[in-house]
Amino acid sequence: LVEDDICFESRYAYCLIWVDVSPPVLRHFVSVRVDQMVEAGFVDEVRGLFQQNADYARGLRRAIGVPELDKFIRSEGKLEDAIGEIKANTWNLTKRQLSKIRRLSDTRGWRLHRIDATEAFKKQGLEADMAWERLVVGPAAMTVGRFLSNEGSIMVVNKVKPRGKSVISRSPPPAVAAAAMASS
């Protein structure tokens, strides 16, 4: 995501959709996902990448879980401790990303179309697929459709730093903006 000192530039109109999930549900999902990765062979995969003098500041070794498992492999410590650290660090990354998403709207004035996927994340199997289609895919497709058809939207020319060149962006139709604000 965008860092504080970088200014996003686009020559094209854009539509930003934020698929949001309530923090407790998202945290549980992250924990379960890490467990699934471990069950699917993540530890052995990282073990295959292990190199005594590897640089963990760049490339694949920066991936979620790799630095934590490196410490485990080097010390042959408790796997449960490494997995707990992966979960904690992944959750911290998630919180930082959420802060950046909110900052895009709050400080930069970007219009984000927030879609709440919490109920879809609570379900499993076919119910989860159906909820995802109804609660996420459907509303996202409608938002993109409105954006593409320019239904009631206002074209706005924004000055974008650092070059100050004009950029055209679209404001959402009033109904979409009101719905997005009401759900926040």
TrEMBL record:
GO annotation terms (biological process): cytokinin biosynthetic process; tRNA modification
Keyword Ligase: no
Coiled-coil zones: none
The UniProt record lists the keyword DNA-binding: no
Matches recorded under InterPro entries: Dimethylallyltransferase (IPR039657), P-loop_NTPase (IPR027417)
GO CC, alphabetical: mitochondrion
Superkingdom of this protein's organism: Eukaryota
Keywords associated with the record: ATP-binding, Cytokinin biosynthesis, Nucleotide-binding, Transferase
PANTHER family, per the entry: ADENYLATE ISOPENTENYLTRANSFERASE 5, CHLOROPLASTIC (PTHR11088:SF74), TRNA DIMETHYLALLYLTRANSFERASE (PTHR11088)
The name this protein goes by in its record: Uncharacterized protein
Natural source organism: Opuntia streptacantha
